[in-house]
Design brief:
Blueprint (H helix, E strand, L loop, with lengths): L1 H26 L1 H21 L4 E8 L11 H4 L1 H4 L3 H11 L7 H9 L2 E5 L4 E8 L2 H18 L4 H31 L10 H30 L6 E3 L12 H51 L2
Antiparallel strand pairs: 1-3, 1-4, 2-3
Length: about 300
C-alpha cells in the first residue's frame, strides 16, 4: 500500500516538474525566440565577413596506353603530379601567389586548396579552390598547363624514344616488304619454298609484327610531344556559388546552439534563485527557534 502511494507521489512530482519546466520556458519565451534569432543573425553576419571560397572543376580524359601498348606512366602518376612541387611551383611563380612569403609556405597552403583524383573510368578530375571565381579558374588552368609540360620527356628519355622510333620505322618497312612478297607469290621467291599452309602461318605472324611496329610508329611521336590541351574534356569552370562558408548550415547550427545555451542558462538561473530562497527561509526559521529558546529560559 505504501509502495503504491510512493509511486503515485513520484509520478505526481514528475508531472509537476515537467509543468514547472514548461511554465519556465513559457515565461522566457521572448528571450528564447529573440536570443535564438540573435545567434543565427550573428553567425550569418560573420559568414559574410569571412573570405568566401569558390571551387573551379575540370575533367581530363587521358589516353591510358603509351608506346608499346604499355600503361602510360604520365597517366598513372597524373593525380599525384598535380599537387607536386614540380607542377605547383611554376604556378606560384606565374600567378605571383607567394606575395613575399616563402614558396614552401605558399605551396603547403595551395596543396590544401587543390584536389585531383583519377577515377576508374580513366578521367582525371581537378578541383581548385580560391577566394574568387576568376582566381579559382585561373589557378585550375595554370595547374593543367604546368602539368602538361611535365608530360614532355626529358633529354635522355627523348633520345631513347627517338632510337626506338627509328628502329620501329625500319622494322615496319622490312616487314611490309616481306609481307608483300609472301602475299604476291605464296613464298615461291624465298630461298626455301613454302607450302600453302606454311605461307599462311607466316603471313599471320608477320602481320602481328606489322601491327606491333605500326603501333610504335604511331604512339612514340605522341609520347615525344607529351599531352596537349586536347585531353581536357571539361575546361575549368567559372564557379557561381560558394563552397565555404556554408551559410545555411552554419546559421542553423548557431541558432540551435544559441537556443540550447539559453535554455541551460534559464534553468541554471532558476535553480540559483530557488536555492537562495530556500537558504533565506532556513535562516529565518533558525532565528525564530533561537528566539523561542531564549524566551523559554527567561524567568
Amino acid at each position: 500500500m505504501m509502495k503504491n502511494e510512493n509511486e503515485t507521489l513520484s509520478a505526481a512530482d514528475r508531472k509537476i516538474s515537467v509543468l514547472d519546466a514548461l511554465v519556465l520556458l513559457a515565461e522566457n519565451a521572448r528571450l528564447l525566440v529573440f536570443g535564438t534569432l540573435a545567434f543565427g543573425l550573428l553567425a550569418l553576419a560573420i559568414c559574410f565577413v569571412v573570405p568566401q571560397s569558390y571551387t573551379s572543376e575540370a575533367i581530363l580524359a587521358l589516353p591510358n596506353l603509351g608506346a608499346n601498348g604499355a600503361l602510360n606512366p604520365a597517366v598513372s602518376q597524373a593525380a599525384a603530379m598535380m599537387t607536386s612541387p614540380l607542377v605547383l611551383d611554376p604556378v606560384i611563380d606565374t600567378l605571383n601567389l607567394s606575395e613575399g612569403r616563402p614558396i614552401q609556405v605558399t605551396r603547403k597552403k595551395m596543396i590544401g586548396h587543390v584536389r585531383s583524383t583519377l577515377g576508374k573510368d580513366g578521367l582525371l578530375r581537378l578541383d581548385a579552390t580560391a577566394n574568387s571565381p576568376i582566381e579559382a579558374q585561373r589557378i585550375a588552368n595554370a595547374i593543367i598547363d604546368s602539368w602538361l609540360k611535365t608530360t614532355i620527356p626529358g633529354v635522355e628519355e627523348r633520345n631513347d624514344l627517338e632510337k626506338r622510333l627509328e628502329t620501329a620505322k625500319s622494322s615496319l618497312d622490312a616487314v611490309e616488304r616481306l609481307l608483300k612478297r609472301l602475299t604476291s607469290d605464296g613464298g615461291a621467291n624465298l630461298a626455301q619454298a613454302l607450302t600453302r599452309g606454311e605461307a599462311g602461318a607466316t603471313i599471320v605472324s608477320i602481320g602481328e609484327l606489322q601491327t606491333k611496329y605500326l603501333g610504335d610508329v604511331l604512339s612514340i611521336p605522341r609520347t615525344l610531344r607529351g599531352f596537349s590541351r586536347d585531353v581536357i574534356k571539361q575546361p575549368p569552370t567559372l564557379p557561381t556559388e560558394t563552397v565555404a562558408p556554408q551559410k545555411a548550415l552554419i546559421t542553423s547550427l548557431a541558432a540551435l546552439a544559441g537556443a540550447l545555451t539559453l535554455v541551460i542558462w534559464i534553468y541554471v538561473r532558476q535553480t540559483l534563485r530557488t536555492a537562495e530562497e530556500s537558504a533565506a527561509s532556513a535562516q529565518k526559521l533558525a532565528k525564530l527557534r533561537s528566539a523561542l529558546r531564549m524566551a523559554a529560559r527567561s524567568p
